[in-house]
Design goal:
- With 102 residues, this protein is mainly alpha-helical.
- It has a single domain, classed as Alpha Horseshoe (Serine Threonine Protein Phosphatase 5, Tetratricopeptide repeat), CATH 1.25.40.10.
- The protein is built from 6 helices and no strands.
- The N and C termini lie far apart (39 Å).
């Protein structure tokens, strides 16, 4: 993630794409790939990568949060609501703030 933190987004994206090709179930690599695309104002591609992160690990809180931001940027309000609800339900510190209506 050094490339990402140095602001070398293009190189970070290439490295992360290589990683997810080698290890397609690497939720963190998918999440970082999505985050790098989002930072590069490529929210549609970011959403796809973040969804792959969640497919690999449905409880990846960072991917849920970053995906919500990217969906907001793309104005997909239904998905924003869904991601926000999942995020809040999964946050142990938020359990007292939300009534579970299942």
């Amino acid at each position: 993630m050094q490339l990402f933190h140095e602001g070398r987004l293009g190189e970070a994206i290439l490295a992360l794409e290589a990683e997810v090709q080698r290890n397609p179930n690497n939720s963190d690599a998918w999440r970082w790939l999505g985050t790098a695309h989002a930072e590069n104002d490529e929210d549609k591609v970011a959403v796809i990568a973040l969804q792959r992160s969640l497919t690999a690990d449905p409880e990846n809180i960072e991917a849920l949060f970053d995906g919500g931001v990217s969906h907001t940027n793309e104005l997909t309000t239904q998905m924003v609501r869904h991601r926000t609800a999942v995020l809040v339900r999964n946050r142990s510190s938020s359990r007292g703030l939300v009534n579970d209506r299942r």
